[in-house]
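Researcher: I'm preparing a figure for a lab meeting and need a structural model of a single chain. I don't have an experimental structure, so a prediction will have to do for now. The sequence is pasted below. Please return the structure as tokens so I can convert it later.
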Amino acid sequence: MSGIGILILAAGASRRLGQPKQLLSYRGKSLIRHVAEVAIASGGEPVGVVLGAYSETIKPHLANLSIHIADNERWSTGMASSIRCGLGEILTISPELDAIVLMVCDQPFVSSDLIRQLISGYQTSNSAIVASEYAGILGVPALFDRTFFPELFQLRADVGAKSIIRRHRSRSLGIPFAEGAIDLDIPQHLDIL
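Model: Understood. Here is the structure written out token by token.
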């Protein structure tokens, strides 16, 4: 599966949650380590993690993993800056990358099998975008062919990759991931852990 990188967006300050969601305990480890291990086990490479708020506190939780950390100093300007920062870092490592899978750190039920399904869907269809399908939408984790890298670099503020998926729905393939609707944004969501 070389040629397909993975980028985990984990730079946010978790303001609505009131604590760093990256460091929530899940299955005996921090959520960020769990998601990073899922990404590594999926077989895509390189794997990058974008950090911002709490960067120095989070880094020890990623020790001894085969990942590349990108520090987004502009994390407070919105998710788009993390996508640009991380994609730039990944392309510096692997300039010939065919595609990138974008993940977020607050979907605890993401699995390496799901990531492999996204990659397989890309390899066996003519779809330039392969996205997780949940709650009536296509969203992340999502794979983007390199032809979309310029659009990813053009994102601004809090406009994320879903805007590109919506714009190019006819070129997108959905992979069922019902649990993708569950993310950890507010304290009430922590009951699932």
